[in-house]
Each structure stands twice: as C-alpha cells, then as structure tokens.
Amino acid sequence: MLIQCTKKLLDQLKIKPDLEKQETPLFSWHANLITIDRRKTIVLMNDSSRYTIVLYGLKAKDIKHLNELIIDAIRQTLLDELVKPEIVERFLERSPEIVYTKTKDRTMVARLNKACDNVWFNGEKLNPDQIIQSAESRKVSTLLVGDKSGNYVCPNELMYRDLETFSKESIFSCKAVVFKVTLGLENHNVWRRVIVPIETTFEQLHDILQIVFGWQDSHLHDFCVFDNKRPVVNLVCSDDAFDYPSDIPMIMETDRKLSDFIPKYSRIKYIYDFGDNWEHYIELEKIEENYAKNYSVCLDSDGTAPPEDVGGEAGYDAFLSAIADPAHPDHEEIIEWGGMQGYTPFNRELINRMLRRSL
Q1: Residue 224 — pLDDT band, cuts 50, 70, 90?
Q2: 85-111 b/e (C-beta count within 10 Å ≥ 16 → b)
Q3: What pTM value is reported for the model?
Q4: Architecture of the domain made up of 2-167
C-alpha cells in the first residue's frame, strides 16, 4: 500500500521516503498531518475515490505504530460501512506492505487539502477517546466533491464501486430490521416504515428519524427501550441529562447499536424536542437476514409531520387551521413561516436520496 505524504507529515514521521514506487490508485493514498484542537490528526485520502480515513489525537507512541494504525483504520472504517469482512480482508491482503513516499501530483495534493478542510470543519464531531475516527471518516466521505469534468461525486460511492470491481461481487450483506415508527398524535395519522441495518448506532438512528419526519435537528432527544410496557434503559444524547436522574438506567447513546438491544427488545420510544415533546413509537416488525445495502430505506409512509417549533399538537392544529383558511388574519404569514420550517408534503423519493447520504 502506497502512502504519499506531505513534507509536514514526513518530517513528523522522521523517515526517509522511498524514491520510486508505483501502485494502482485503489491501493494508493495521499496523507497529511493537521492539528485539530491541539491534537495531531492524520488525514488519508484514497487516490482512486477520494475516500477519507481519519486518525485523531496521535501521540509519539502512536506514530511508531502508524503502519498498524493505518491498516486497522481502513479495516474498521470499511467494516463499519458494512462491507463484507472477507472483501475487506482481500482488499488489505492485496497490498499488505506499507511504503511511504513524497507527494508527486499537485492535483491530488489540492484534493487532499480539501479533504483536510472537510475534516477540520467537522472537528467538533471527533471522538477524543478514539484514534480511529470511523464515523467521521464515513461522514466526510459522503460530502460531494468536484471532478475534472465539473461534475460532483460522493467519494464513498466511488469507493463502493471500486470495491465491487475489485471483488467482482456485491460488497454489502448485513442483518437489518424493519421498524414502523408512529408519531404520537391524537388527531393525525403520521407514520413511517423504515428498514435499518441492525449495526446502526442510536446516534445514526436519530439522524434517520430526523430525515424521515422532516425535523431540523435543533433540539435534544433521547431513546427509551422497552421490555413490553416496562422501560429497560434510557439512551441520552447529552451529559446534561445525568443531572436529572430517574429510576430507569441511563446511558449515553454514543456507540450504542440497535444490535445491543434488538431483537431481545422490540419496542423503543424516541422523544425529540422536550418542549414540543414529539413522541415517536418504534415497533419491530421484521428482521431481514441478508440486506444488500448499507443504508436505511423508507419503505412506506402516511401523513406529513408537523413543522419544527410549532408548539406541540395544539400548535399544529392551530397552524393547520390558519393555512386552510384564507380569511385567517395570519394566513399568509403562517404559510411563509411553514415554508421556512420546511413544511412540505412527504416525498419518499427525496427522503430516500437523503437517507442514502446520511450514513
């Protein structure tokens, strides 16, 4: 595997780069050293796809074992993408020796700098307790980048294509769950049926639910897992939640996966915006043993969800009355406000395009 390093990174590594080494783009990476929150961060970008791998908070002892870290980071990130384990190992075995050289291509260096900018701008999402930043790597790799033809592409989709060409088979196969998620409204029927890979984290499930219900991710949330009608555990998104203890065991949602609780438990409640208190009831309907995607898909739906900050169901009813009555004194203003809040009829095709990029 060829790692083409910037001078800054080579100086940090204190190694003499190989002068002559050629490798196919799929097994070649450009790499740079940047600093985020005073922590040393190495960003690797694949030459073929521009897929990005992030190593964060590196210390001197970590630099000494950089070869192993790079291999482990590629392995972990691709496995977290739900690429078949045997394909990941074949990919790593194809070019097992790591060789460091200088950068040789200005275009690739410019692309690497863009990848570094994307990592830096998303720096607040880096996990300070981990060197291998799989979640950040996958997120940055979903961001559109321009090519020489003026088109825009997603590095992760190019990487999937390259891996399928390399392996000559479908690269995804995982267990997935089919959920019916119902928004708890007395006067309106709003629900979504979604298939979700079982290795999805609760943090990712939050993102999925935000997309399928059209929320803006402007408020806090939590999950409660139930054994029949008895709450088993409360998964929270903020350390502040621990200032308000309850009888239900409370844990952070970070890195907790659906597979930690499903299928043992089949009911989950998701609350978004503790002011408007939107309660979503998640019911397990089915388990798919061989799901050939690594992202969620909305299979079915009914109803349009309320706009953000409308004031709960009572506010939503008042909102609907105002937009339905041209004689209402605030009719035009409420329609304009609803548009600003993204209140539009549910569009499953658009939602599924968004889900594909949410990863």
Answers
A1: very high
A2: eebbeebbeeeeeeebbebeeeebbeb
A3: 0.87
A4: 2-Layer Sandwich (3.30)
